[in-house]
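Running low. Invent one:
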Amino acid sequence: MTTKPSDAPWADEPFHLIATPSKRLTDSHSYVQTASEMASAHNSIIRGLNAIVQQAPHVAISADEAYRAQDVKDLLFYVQSWVKMVNHHHWVEESFIFPEMEKFSGKPGLMAEPQRQHELFHDGMNKLLGYASTMKPESYRWEGQGGMKEIIDSFAHHLVNHLHDEIDVLLTMKDLDSAGLKKTWEQAEVLAKQTGSIGMLERSLEI
């Protein structure tokens, strides 16, 4: 056993993680903390997506000798959990973070572009959720027409580009009142915790 960090090329691929702003910015203004914590949340999303893309091709389908229905169920449950987590994150943004930041900043439209970008992957995410929620293990496919890879490929780059771009928007908030921005962010964190569902992390009795 080794404690050496993994240098495996697949660990953070195919989608690159976001550099944490606080690693390079020393400004005490809360925009650095806000952008850094959002980057951490976004990196969790990217890591989840990378895990699906990297591991799903190795889950045997029904035509394979190594096929195990439970393996497919586990994969589909993971995909469902990931989509629900991402959808909840964006619901909090649209319901509170975006409007409150525009209200606090006095700049209508400040978060219009990040919200517009949500529309680019919304349908694809919901299609993936529907696939993972209803697909029978014996019918699951990764490759080919109608396979899960096809669905993910339809929206993944839009999603990842958005996750990176939104951090750039937050980094433009240096001119806002630091205490006010921090308060808005902390209120968003409370809402996220209050509305998050632990159910998405637990197995249902049907699986």
